[in-house]
Amino acid sequence: MGTTEFGYYPGCALHGSSNDYEQSVRACLDRLDVRLTELEDWICCGATAAHSINQKLATALPARNLAIAEKAGCGSLLAPCPMCSMELLKAKQAITSDPAVRDEMSEIVELPVIGSTDVVNLIQVFQAIGLDAIKSKVTDSLDRFRPACYYGCLLTRPPKTLRFDDCEHPSSMETFLAELGAEPVDWNFKTECCGAGMTLCDPDTVTDLAHKIIANARKHGANVIVTACPMCQMNLDMRQADVEKKFEETFDMPILYLSDLVGLALGISEEELGINRHYVKLQI
Amino acid sequence: MAKIGVFTCWCGENIARHIDVERVSKAIESLPGVHCSMNYKYMCSEPGQSLIIDQIKSLGLTGVVVASCSPHMHLKTFRAAAQLAGVNPYMVEMANIREQCSWVHADKEEATAKAIELIRISVEKLRHNRPLQPISVPITKKALVIGGGVAGIQAALDIAAAGHEVILVEKEPSVGGKMAGLSETFPTLDCSQCILTPRMVEVNQHPKIRLMTYSEVEKVEGYIGNFSVTIRQKARYVDVNKCTGCGTCWNGCPNKRIPNSFDFNLGNRTAIYIPFPQAVPARPVIDSSRCIHFKNGKCGICEKNCAAGAINFNDEDKLITEEVGAVVVATGYQLYSIGKEQSNPNLSGYGEYGYGKYKDVIDSLQFERLISASGPTGGEPKRPSDGRVPQKIVFIQCVGSRDNAKGVSYCSKICCMYTAKHTMLYKHKVHDGEAHVFYMDIRSGGKKYDEFVRRAIEQDGALYHRGRVSKITEEEIDGVRKLVVRGADTLTGKPVTVEADMVVLACAMAPTDGATALAQKLSVGYDEYGFLSESHPKLRPVETNSAGVFLCGACQGPKDIPESVAQASAAAAKVLVMFSQDHLTREPEIAHVDESLCAACCACVQACPYEAISIEEIVDRKGNHVKNTSRVNPGLCMGCGTCVAVCPSKSIDLEGFTEEEVYAEIESLLS
Amino acid sequence: MSETQSQLVADVEKLAHTQVNDCYQCGKCTAGCPRGDVMDIGPTRLIRLVQTGEVLEAARAESVWQCVSCLTCSTRCPKSVNISGVIDALRQISVEKRISAKRFNKTVLFQKEFLRNIRRNGRTNELELVVAWKLLGLASDLNPLAALRDAQLGPKMFFRHKLHFMPGSPVKDKAVVRRIFDRCMAERKSETEE
Fold first, then answer.
1. Is C35 near chain B, with CB under 8 Å?
2. Could you tell me if C182 lies within 8 Å of chain A, comparing CB atoms?
3. CB-based contact B340 A188, cutoff 8 Å
4. What's the CATH fold of domain B337-510?
5. Minimal Cα distance from A217: which residue of B?
6. CA-based nearest residue in chain B for residue A159
7. pLDDT the model gives residue B396
8. Which pick of B75, B478, B571, B632 has the fewest CB atoms within 10 Å?
9. Do C162 and A43 lie within an 8 Å CB cutoff?
């Protein structure tokens, strides 16, 4: 297998409080001979704040990043954070479906932008590498893991913009992990929101939502929750102690990134993947 | 030399208020060919018609222009009047100065000027008209009814009762259609089978009806009064004439676990089977795709056991051709597919409701089977997953219906009623059970319909929540598998969660598979969903635009049993009107080919939407080929004029609207 | 509906790229909403208020800020109404007109502070954001306990190398970010000035 290249848009989370995700993604993709080229001088996608305060800004900020990617000749851009990738795709859709928006955005962001870059999430990168290629490098079986694959809100929604997996019963992570020896469980909160956007301003909401998710995963026999979203991971991981306290239940449910599990299968150590930096210890 | 009379109508004030009729009459008087120009308050009234007749007789008029309303309204009236006075009815023209003039213009001056123009062009056309004779077509007084559900049965019985032969074609092994599978019917709760099965027996025994089950219409040729229909009788592997329907074969068949499609796969059947005990004819078929004998040549138990020697493993499909004069389409409906896999790629399905994923999420026709005495549970509402009697059922309306994003935009009309019925039947069987209904609107127009829904709520205690359901998940709660239904009550504005044992989805009604293919064979139009199109939604509800083809029941749009039956009788009446004559009179305004000019290029043949034009050979007396020409079948031509537009040699023309006549109109307008 | 009301409805529809009259009030949005049970005015009713011209009443609702932007409502809407987009539009209008629900002052402040942070840095500087927001929160509701609520998370994050005093890689061209902000905001300012 030759080297595969992707443009890389880390987004603020992966360069901030979720830098363990970046560590995990990089370690994993490095082992799979994927080269990531980080966008030069990328800016924040605007996240919830932009679309809460100013709709135009919510298009312009990701549009600037799309323009940077286009300028760099980037065909496929990995945005491991689903919020970022959704905002980028939403902007791309606005730009490609209306020439007036395209022209306006090109003016606002001071770079021509036509929306030609493909924006992909982490699962799609793994799919692009291919199961066979990954399996050829697997050293350790994942058979001790019974993951509840958690997609959260923005990996599949809005379906018409993202065009990724079934928005009600997604299965791409399960398919993947099952091939690597894990036994994914069928559960009911795959696409329910964990409230991460409110983690600082409305902790009560967040603990309620997180509790439902973690409890359902455990009920269906999971011993780990796997996610491809830095906000979901942090929220379920960091807030789990609060959840346990509030609901007087012990979960000890490790919250891993998808790249953590794939990385473990590839024989990468927990330290290299940054799993040791999670709040809930992995003891499986 | 034309002698034309022009009669301008006031239509009370409708025309006269905005058009100066006196001035119109005066202006028309001097036109070439016009011998008299008069106006009157109501030209369509008896004195008005008399005026026309008198003028024709006294002045010897050869043609008449009536300037009044739309020809849709009164062309027939004035043609009849002219005919009474001895003028060929096709020498009557109408100038529409009401809908297209007085009703739509406010300025009297301008409207008057326009009325004069409109009449002038009609006069000019009439000057070029020639008398036409109606076309006479012989009729085969035998009808074909396609579809043996309640509508088809009704139509067949009505036509046969009038003494005419009927061929009833049904694709399933038994007649009865969807109604045969229903439990009780709204709003009377009378048993569906009790009403229907005697009618099923009647069609089978009626001397005038030839019942062809397990058969499909393969090909339709010909035209009104003279159709030639090819029917494929599928191999049944059972000789129905020898078979006595004793049941030894299906009772002895070792292959017992085949999902029965009549029970919507909730129950099982054998490889040789009748779909349900009351099937008509009570003659089995062998499902060759599942029969052991067809797999490996072994078994053959049914053959050994059959005392009548009716089993015939070498049976083959047969093609049978029949001549009929009229066709009634009654192909009915099926439920909109709610599984994840959709026949139409534009429909994304209802993943959120988990149909197909959770066994206890079923559709409404499955529920009918579950509470039907003849169903797989003998009428006890047992849930499919574990056979438990559900203590709480959620019924969801408008699944697929009124859902532009995932289904169809139309309302399926019957779901409100049958859902109310379902809650009642359930409550009558499980007294302490809870029936929850999620609905958007309750549409219960009909005799005793709303009272029925209120009864479900007020007397039987069904709990109605006004809101759609967002998601259904399955959870084990206290050791029992439950369906967690997340809905809303928009009247309180709050979400509602119900932990149910079973969920019944009231799915949209959709046309049966194959309905559009059949419609194409019959040259009948259909809408974007595949429902067949009636000729006029109000005035010709059971006719189609294909003469001699009628429709009834749910193939035309969602409807309930009473409506289907009423429409079936209406379609039968239309067939009988046709059959009351020996010859059919058709309007002569059809296409006509000048065979000396035609180059047989086939452009018209391809353009004709009714397949009314064919290429024929002209031979001389010795039988030598002279040339080919296109020729119009007067029975099939609907006079649409498409062929005229595409003919490169101008050799095809439309009687009553010839190029000459139409150009005369246009030129007079431009002069 | 008054002309002002019609204009507000048109504004919501333009911002959300949707037609509110497509909604037939089926309630599927409220049914699937993860916050539907605690909202004062659920999504279905918010849309209804907009339909009837009561945009300002809708914008004042607490639910507008209780929404977690999970897009479940828009995804499942049988009429393809962009409900979450309407809620975003209501948020924007509530901020511009300074009528957002009092109880959610802090949430609004957080979102504003988040944007200010990006405008300044091009990317979020989390520590700066958390500190600024806590101080603002302290100033706004004078409740030191609330401000301290998540204080224990700070050191925890720090020891996991998750919280940084300096953002990892600063944006070089910060000026362009400010210009983008100004261009996007300018138009709305002139529109909302009364």
1. no
2. no
3. no
4. FAD/NAD(P)-binding domain (3.50.50)
5. B475
6. B348
7. 98
8. B478
9. no
Residues 6+ apart with CB under 8 A from B415: B364, B397, B398, B401, B506, B507, B508
The angle at the Cα of C26, spanning B499 to C10, to the nearest 5 degrees, equals 145
Which of B440, B468, B493 is facing C42, going by the closest CB pair?
Answer: B493
In the 8-state DSSP scheme, what is residue B618?
E
Q: Which residue of B has its CA nearest to C74?
A: B405
Chain C neighbours (≥3 Cβ pairs under 8 A) are A, B
Mean pLDDT of the B133-137 span: 89
Q: Give the pairing of strands A34-38 and A76-78.
A: unpaired
Q: Which residue of A has its CA nearest to B350?
A: A168
Architecture per CATH, A139-277: 3-Layer(aba) Sandwich (3.40)
| DSSP-based three-state secondary structure for A246 | helix
pLDDT of residue B611: 87
Sort out which chain C residues have CB atoms less than 8 A from B405's CB and list them: 77-80
Q: Taking residues B167-177, what's their average pLDDT?
A: 97
- B partners (3+ CB pairs within 8 A) are A, C
Query: Cα dihedral angle (A267, A272, A277, A279), rounded to 10 degrees?
Result: -10
Q: Residue B362 has what pLDDT? A: 95
Q: Which segment of B11-25, B384-398, C10-24, C158-172 scores lowest on mean pLDDT?
A: C158-172
Contact C162 A17 (CB under 8 A): yes
- For residue A131, give the amino acid letter: L
Return all residues near B621 (Cβ < 8 A) that are at least 6 apart: none
Contact at CB, B351 and A188, closer than 8 angstroms: no
Say what the pLDDT of residue A204 is: 84
Residue C78 sits at the chain B interface (C-beta within 8 Å): yes
Check if B337-510 and B591-655 are the same fold.
Answer: no
Check if the beta carbon of residue C140 is closer than 8 Å to that of residue C112: no
In chain B, which residues have their Cβ closer than 8 Å to the Cβ of A167?
351
Please name every residue paired with B472 in a beta bridge, in sequence order, or none if there are none.
B485
- What is the DSSP secondary structure assignment for residue B648, as one 8-state letter? T
Residues in chain A within 8 Å Cβ distance of B476: 219
Peptide bond into B390 cis (omega under 30): no
At B65 the three-state DSSP class reads: strand
CATH 3.40.50.11810 segments of chain A = 139-277
Between residues B586 and A80, which one has the greater pLDDT? A80
Please give the CATH topology (third level) of the domain spanning B142-234+317-332+512-579. Answer: FAD/NAD(P)-binding domain (3.50.50)
What is the total count of domains within chain C?
2
Least confident of B471-485, B626-640, C15-29: B626-640
Q: Where are the domains of chain B?
A: 4-128, 142-234+317-332+512-579, 248-305, 337-510, 591-655
Q: What is the pLDDT along chain C (194 residues), one digit of tens a residue?
A: 999 999 999 999 999 999 999 999 999 999 999 999 999 999 999 999 999 999 999 999 999 999 999 999 999 999 999 999 999 999 999 999 999 999 998 889 889 999 999 999 999 888 888 777 777 666 655 555 555 566 666 666 666 666 655 555 789 999 999 999 999 998 786 544 43
Contact B494 C44 (CB under 8 A): no
Q: Do B467 and C30 touch (CB under 8 A)?
A: yes
Full domain range(s) for residue C138: 102-193
Grade residue B506 by pLDDT with cuts at 50, 70 and 90.
Answer: very high
Return d(Cα B228, Cα B144) in angstroms, integer: 10
Considering the segment(s) A4-122 as one domain, its CATH architecture is Up-down Bundle (1.20)
Cβ contact C25–B490 (<8 Å): yes
Task: Report the alpha-carbon distance of residue A142 to residue A180 in Å, rounded.
Answer: 6
Q: Kindly report, residue by residue over B338-376, the tens digit of the pLDDT.
A: 765 555 554 456 889 998 889 999 999 999 999 999 999
Which residue of chain C is at minimal alpha-carbon distance from B485? C31
